[in-house]
Amino acid sequence: MIAGLRERGEDEARGLARDFDRWDGPIVVEESAVKAARRTLAPTVLDDITEAHRNIRSFARAQRESLQPFEVEISPGLRAGHRLVRRARSTWARSQVSCICLSRSGC
Questions:
Q1: How many CA atoms lie within 13 A of 71 on its CB side?
Q2: Cα separation of 36 and 51, whole Å?
Q3: Which residue, among 34, 38, 56, 37, has the nearest Cα to 46 in the 3D structure?
Q4: Is residue 71 part of a domain?
Q5: Mapping DSSP to helix (H, G, I), strand (E, B) and coil, where does residue 84 land?
Q6: 30 is in which domain, residue-wise?
Q7: How many CA atoms lie within 13 A of 88 on its CB side?
Q8: What is the model's pTM?
Q9: Residue 58 domain-assigned?
Q10: Which of 4, 34, 70, 71 fits a disulfide with 12 by CB distance 3.0 to 4.6 angstroms?
Q11: Lowest-pLDDT choice from 10-19, 36-45, 68-77, 81-90
Q12: Which residues touch 75 (CB under 8 Å, ≥6 apart)?
């Protein structure tokens, strides 16, 4: 999948959306369409979405802050560990991801 996205870009993304989500609509939705859809929602639905977003963000932040790197020798010469890997920021993700490692030379 990643190779396909790198090689074919947006065309590949559209194909994946079609294959996995049965979506063949626009990838980028115009702001006017978002505003029009928002006007059709009851205020209580908007409040529920806002609260859910706040709760999910709060939990994700606490979860991310709880992650600590570690490494353990699980058998002689074989180490396993978990570390945080820095990566470029994007609009939908934070700057660190977790990485699980199994190695004879250390994680």
A1: 12
A2: 21
A3: 38
A4: no
A5: strand
A6: 1-40
A7: 2
A8: 0.50
A9: no
A10: 4
A11: 81-90
A12: none
pLDDT, tens digit (0-9, with 9 covering 90-100), for 3-57: 899 899 989 999 999 999 999 888 888 999 999 999 999 999 999 999 999 999 9
Residues paired with residue 73 on neighbouring β-strands, in sequence order: 79
Q: Which residues of 33-46 are buried (b: 16+ CB within 10 A; e: fewer)?
A: eeeeeeeeeeeeee
Overall domain count for the chain: 1
99: pLDDT strictly greater than 90: no
Question: Would you put residue 9 in left (φ > 0), alpha (ψ -120 to 50) or beta?
Answer: left
Neighbours of 14 (CB within 10 A): 16
66 occurs within a structural domain: no
